Amino acid sequence: MNELAELARKLENLIRFGTVAQVQMQPPRVRVQTGTLLTTWLPWINPRAGLDREWNPPTEGEQVVLFSPSGTLAQGVALTGLFSDLIPANGDRAGLHRSTYRDGAVIEYDSIAKHLRATLPGSAELNAVGPVTVITDASLSATAQGDITLTSAANITITAAGNVAISGAKVDLN
After folding, report:
1. H/E element, 66
2. How far apart are CA 75 and CA 15, in angstroms?
3. In the chain, which residue ranges form alpha helices assigned H by DSSP?
4. Cys staple from 24: which of 29, 74, 119, 163, with CB 3.0 to 4.6 Å?
5. 10-33 pLDDT tens trace
6. Which of the listed residues 79, 109, 142 is the one where a domain comes to its end?
7. Phi (first) and psi of residue 48, to 5 degrees
8. Element (H, E) at 34
9. pLDDT tens per residue across span 103-154
10. Which long-range contacts (CB under 8 A, 24 or more apart) does 19-24 make?
11. Is 67 exposed, middle or buried (0-12, 13-18, 19+ CB in 10 A)?
């Protein structure tokens, strides 16, 4: 291959579009289909990868941009997160931060409406070593289709400026 052709090949490979063909979890790598080429295993760019880290691996079919600073695809990295006709955007307005998961879970914060919402198809759990406090300037309610249980290794205190009502088919205040 002459030098001019090699230079042209390297320039073409500096920045390319492609789609994730395969995902490997350990170590985290992807193979990308770009045109007729299938890359070797390449790292993907993640929002954080230091002492604070995020883990959100790409999925097959996700559109990416390949950056190969040397012009050699085998030394490139994949920048994930490009919406496509196959995988369209999961939001449609400014101020919305939404994470949508393959099982149907959605966690979103709308900074314009000032509203946080989590829709979960399964269970949820909050674990804390220290105290957990919920403060609201409005009402607080909990609704369950099953039982609600409060358990404490110490005391339970209910304080109200108004009335306290406890009702049920059977009320046991032992």
Report:
1. strand 63-67
2. 12
3. 3-14
4. 29
5. 999 999 999 999 999 999 999 999
6. 79
7. -140, 135
8. strand 29-34
9. 999 999 999 999 999 999 999 999 999 999 999 999 999 999 999 999 999 9
10. 19/61, 19/62, 19/63, 19/64, 19/84, 20/58, 20/59, 20/60, 20/61, 20/62, 20/64, 20/78, 20/80, 21/60, 22/60, 23/57, 23/58, 23/59, 23/60
11. middle
Asked if residue 47 is part of any domain, the answer here is yes
- Residues 36, 104 within the same domain: no
- Pair of tokens at residue 45: 């760019």
15 DSSP β-pair partners: 67
User: Which residue range forms the structural domain that includes residue 43?
Assistant: 3-79
Q: Is 85 helix (H, G, I), strand (E, B) or coil?
A: coil
Location of structure tokens 């032992």: 174
Task: For residue 46, list its beta bridge partners.
Answer: none
**Which element (helix H / strand E) includes 38?**
strand 37-38
φ, ψ of residue 7 to 5 degrees: the values are -65, -45
